[in-house]
Each structure stands twice: as structure tokens, then as C-alpha cells.
Amino acid sequence: MIVTVTMNPSVDISYPVDILKIDDVNRVENVSKTAGGKGLNVSRVIKQMDGELIASGILGGSLGAYIIDQLNDENVPNRFLKIDKESRNCIAILHEGNQTEILESGPTLDGGEGDRYFKLFEKLIEEADVITISGSLPKGLSPNYYQRLLQKSHGKDVKILVDTSGEALKQTLLGDKKPFLIKPNTDELNALLEQETTFDIKGLKEALSNSLFDGVEAIVVSMGADGAFAKIQDTFYKISIPEIKVVNPVGSGDATIAGLAMGIDQELSWEEVLKIAMTTGMLNTMEERTGRINKANFKEYFNQVKVEKIKK
Ligand code: ATP
């Protein structure tokens, strides 16, 4: 069973307009409002792949209730910590081929709320084989909060995948308890290592051999249309994908995490796990809506992914 963690979920509002008029009134007809946040995209993809999961995290207020309603409508089992503060809206204005985003930072949590989530997380650990932790931390929680979640799994038979960036990722890696897997994209890897990596095999091998990654079982660098490069224990893999028609790539990293979690949960070989992850990522890019895939296409694209072991 997979548990997904989204600490700062949102109601994602999309406003399509022909032209965005500044300092004027813009009227919108086809508004869509969906439960958002990286971990919820992960959850949806796992659900569409018929995986067993519980979506978790922290939410509150009427927007929090809306998010729960949406998850229930989509039959995504969920167990969130409910707080007295209002969850956030994130607005995307789609205009003239552009996407202008207005992202609320969300509620500021206090230590008590953080501690209450630790308790819920400890219960979920008992039920989970794999846990995914995705996205940024809400304001008020310390940047090492994910590392503290990892420490709760000490001595437990659970694999934790962390997909975050910036200081939260750095603190996750600097702590005593290492995540089982991380999935930075190329920008996140550069920011983490404070360098401009050359994304060829030599550069990637060097980057992933950085001591910051010591103790992490799997580092999967996702590279958009270029597939991915991974270091699993001491072995490097180059993963190539076919050229596809992309409709909307947003959330493909989340779909990739969903595929990784599912393959790991099923205890498949790393080659299969990586192929599943690339396929769910690609399928997400082929749909208009974020965190959606057409499972009927799975086999066709899975068969076109190539995983190549790189000689030392
Ligand atoms: P996001 O932040 O939008 O969730 P990301 O930057 O974390 O995405 P990417 O590296 O862009 O993640 O994409 C993850 C995976 O999705 C890729 O490894 C690939 O399998 C698939 N993918 C993404 N973009 C493309 C593309 N343009 N063509 C084909 N596959 C893609």
C-alpha cells in the first residue's frame, strides 16, 4: 500500500481568457476548480493505475473540505489532518498561449499542528509499504520537517520517496535518516549542488556521485523529453523515451513519482520500475489535465522505453 503526503494542498483554479486585460475587468466562462498539489497528482495517477493508496497531508477550512470532496468523488481514499486554518487557492490564467500563475502561500502552521501530523504519520507508517512525500512545506514548519518525518520511519519496513526542492530537499539529505529515493529534475539538481551540471553521461555520473547523496538508494534525475538518468546503489542507468506529442507537461514529474512508487510497491526489478515511471510521466504529458493518464496507452509506451546500464 502506498501513502502519499501533500503538506500544502490547494484548490487549483484555471481561468481561460482570450486576452488578459490589465487594469480592466476579465470575464471567465469555463472555470475549472480541482484539488491540487503535487502529492494529489501523484495520488490520482496511482488511482488511475489501480494502485492501493491513502492520500494524506494537512488541510483546513472550506477549501480543505472541497479538496476532500473532490478526492472522495474520484474514489481516492484519504486521511488528512484537519486544521482550523484555510487551505489555499492557486490560480492559473491561461491567455494568448501563456500561463500566468497566482499562487497563494497557504496557511502558516504552528509547531502544534506539525506535531499533530507526526502522530497521524506514525499511524500511516504502520499501514504503508511505500510513502511518497511531494512538494513544498507550508509556512511555519521548519525546513527539516521532511527529515523529521523520515526519522519516524526508523526501524520500520517502509520505503520513502521524497520529491521536493530547495532547502527542504537539502535538509532532507543532510539528516541522519536517508530517503529511499529522490527525483530531482535538472534545475532542482543544479540548485541542490549549486553548480551547472553538464547533462551528459560523464557530467551526470559525477553529479550523482556527490557525497550529499551517500546512503540514498536511488536518485532518479528526470529530464523531460530526454527521459531520465538514475543511480541505483552503485549502478548508473540511462533511460531513453520515444518522441511523443505533448499536450500539457505540467505534473509529469508527479506522474513519474506515482510510477516509481507503484513499481517499488510491487517489488519489481529496477529496470521495470524505471520503465513504469517514464511511461506514467509520458502519459501525463499527453493529457490536457494535470495528473491524468490514459491507462489504455500504457503498454504501447512502456514497450518503447529503453533502460541501459552504464559501464563504470
Ligand atoms: P513537473 O514539475 O511538471 O511535475 P518535472 O520537471 O518534475 O515535472 P520532467 O523531468 O519534466 O519532470 O518530466 C518527468 C517525466 O515525464 C520525464 O522523465 C518523461 O518521462 C516525461 N516527460 C516530461 N516531459 C516530456 C516531454 N516533453 N516529452 C516526453 N516525455 C516527457
TrEMBL record:
Its EC number is 2.7.1.144. Transmembrane segments: none annotated. Pathway: Carbohydrate metabolism; D-tagatose 6-phosphate degradation; D-glyceraldehyde 3-phosphate and glycerone phosphate from D-tagatose 6-phosphate: step 1/2. Residues 11-291 form the Carbohydrate kinase PfkB domain. GO terms for cellular component: cytosol. One of its GO terms (molecular function) is ATP binding. Keywords: ATP-binding, Kinase, Lactose metabolism, Nucleotide-binding, Transferase. It catalyses: D-tagatofuranose 6-phosphate + ATP = D-tagatofuranose 1,6-bisphosphate + ADP + H(+). It holds the Pfam family PfkB. InterPro entries: Carboh/pur_kinase_PfkB_CS, PfkB_dom, Ribokinase-like, Tagatose/fructose_Pkinase. GO terms for biological process: carbohydrate catabolic process; D-tagatose 6-phosphate catabolic process; lactose metabolic process; small molecule metabolic process. Belongs to the carbohydrate kinase pfkB family. Belongs to the carbohydrate kinase PfkB family. LacC subfamily. NCBIfam families: 1-PFK. This is Tagatose-6-phosphate kinase. It comes from Atopostipes suicloacalis DSM 15692. The lineage of its organism: Bacteria, Bacillati, Bacillota, Bacilli, Lactobacillales.
